[in-house]
Sequence to fold (552 residues):
Amino acid sequence: MALQTKNSPFYELTETAILGTDRKPLNRILASGDLGQTISDLSLQDSTSISQAPERVLIDQLTTLSIARKAGSHAKVFSAEMIVCPAETQAKVSERSLALLVQILALETKGSELRPSKMVAEWLTFCAEAEQRVPEEFVPRLLGLGKNISELHPLIEKCCGEHFAWLLDLNQEWRSSYKKHDYSNQDTTQHIERLTNTFETAEQKERYLALLALREMAPAEALKLLSASFERESFDSKIVFLKALSTGLGLHDEPFLEDVALQDRRKEVRTQAASQLCLIPSRYRERMIARADQYLNYDSKNKQFVVTLPEKLDDSMSRDGIVDNLSIDSRLGQKATWLCQILSLVPTSHWQKKFSLSAKEILRIATASSEWSLALTLALMNSAAKFDEVDIQQAILECSEIHLTDSQSGLLLLKALPHAMLENLILQKLPSWSRASEQAPRLDLWYYLEQVDFNWSEHFTREILKFIIKECREKVPVFGHTFYSNASIFALRMHISAGELIEQIAINSEMTDVYRRNALERMSDTVKLRYEIFQSFKSNKQVSTSTKGTKQ
Fold:
């Protein structure tokens, strides 16, 4: 862009700046070309509508022109009207609610362990339930915060009102981030096309989410898409995408899992494919049951299991996902580890039917078999986690000889348990101090809670909090490092009703155990913040409802 020509607007404006607006008024600028016309238009608009001082107008024009020059294009004056955001119909959140959101966001900048995105999601959930929205000036901040957190997108859309779609149209970056998940106005064909395009072009996380969404609405299309790209995928991607097939898993997936995924050169991929195939009545499950029947039988006369170990790991076993050097438990030998893997892939209901035994009887006989009890017990726990069979799960939980946190198989089952069953198990860990003969209890409920991530029910929350309140008043409370490390995280999982009890926790500056005091303070502060958010929306909704009733 030429700068030195005397006819250029930049030269004209520079000369005016040097000589001063008194000696060279702005209205003497010559309009030359598009850029000159732009400056003339600006001069006219500034002088007539804004009534600014000539010096101020000159600075604005030079600034505009400089930016245009650096961008490599001329400034333009648009005669068309800007698209105005549609009028909002939802009421704004209260100042109190908004201030609490700002407080949550401030935690993120401090590197807090509270995982603010979870608290933001809870705030947005309350906001959506109250049918309220954030103020329009706050919408850009919320869009920027959530652009890379796809789980928040539906909530952000609900809580930003009309400004959500309006700002997305004006910002390419936000449009790219949010529109991937906005299919509400598209028909099924368009939806599938968008998901397919995302799977073919996006990063791994977005591809996984697209495949998962496609499995929910068009399982066959998702399988076809994965089949076409599977051989080109990385080792990690193969495992991640195979997990997506758990949604809508059925016999229609067997040919791909059996003939493609189970033939992969990586054992980890074959193991993942095997874990999917054993969940459906497939050829694979029939092979595993037939194989397991060779190694486990029942002596009804002596009421014990008869175990035969595999002599070697042949090619067919390797192909079916049995791993040579898998570490299940250091106490198991190599052949016992092969046996444990095979039995883990067979549902306990098969043995119940074959041996005419209940799940509880099978577990009792397995634990009583001194030589093979470990391999059989671990296999039963793995099977109970995989096949979600309630009978064997309940039998394992009732067995006093089994502590789930003592093995990887037990932890796997712990994480697979239904939440109601899990809560009942942990509540049983609370000590009963009233019995005179009570010994020091195995108080590992904090470790159990550390291993699982779920939203606590109201009853469970109150029972745990009542125990914490009681222990805070004891001279020698039962907490420990696991509780101290996870106090804030536990507070995030508690039911919102925890706010009604949290004030009963006794915390004082004279508490000698600084770790306990800090943990209790973090837990208390988190619960109070969450409860205050809940109350702010509850009270605001009541006021809004009352106002509507008055108007009517």
User: Anything to note?
Assistant: DSSP finds 28 helices and four strands in the chain. The CA atoms of residues 86 and 254 lie 50 Å apart.
